Amino acid sequence: CYRKSGFNRISIGCQSVHDEELKRLGRIHTFAEFQESFVLARDAGFANINVDLMSGLPEQSEEKWEESLRMIAELSPEHISAYSLIVEPGTPFAEQKLDLPDEDTEREMYARTAEILAEYGFFQYEISNYAKPGYECKHNMVYWTGGEYIGFGIGASSYFQGKRFNNMRDIFKYIELMENLSDKFVETDNMELLYNDTTRTLRENVTNIYIDARMEEFMFLGLRMTCGVSREDFKERFNKDIYEVYGSVLNKYIGEGFMASEGDRIYL
User: Are 124 and 71 a contacting pair, CB within 8 Å?
Assistant: First the structure.
């Protein structure tokens, strides 16, 4: 149904090929179930599939991580996202005593990821993302370059016309409102309902993103990409030279060897 409706890319959260690691993560799928989903997606006609993997898991060794990478790469998806586990405060993981890989092991896992995936024809174009040529994720590239995007369905996030917002997460309320919309525009402190002949959107947590925040996001999201940020794009978008705004910090890190400036690009 998704493919026939026009969706052309699908992303599947495998995370690990080892069931014991998935269980420790609290995931409800097995590797065999992931494999079935992958085959079904191919059979449905998806020629652009991403697979998510996670390193730095509790009790995960470098060998186990390499097995996950190689087994997924051998399935030949078009894109692999390889993220390092971050234990966030306030989550169940944060309350547990976890046997996590040390920092040196994590760094080695990260370095090996690019080396191993390169053997299978994937190139790294962002901190955690690897693609076959021509299959960089356009969806994420929009995020990292500060472009606009609109999300559909409950809980979906959007950035549009200088505002960031998400659709409500209560599915029953969402359905009720979608079925009972009038042609009125309603706005409250953190919610607005917009309706016309072509648009039905229930927006929560509407936040105006002003120019200072947009410049900051342009920098810290753009620097996730291996090609970095464009001085010309910055100038065109904000009518300021990048060094006029961030000169001191750029010069500092370029001087220390953590960043480089080459032609139009500034990158880590």
Answer: no
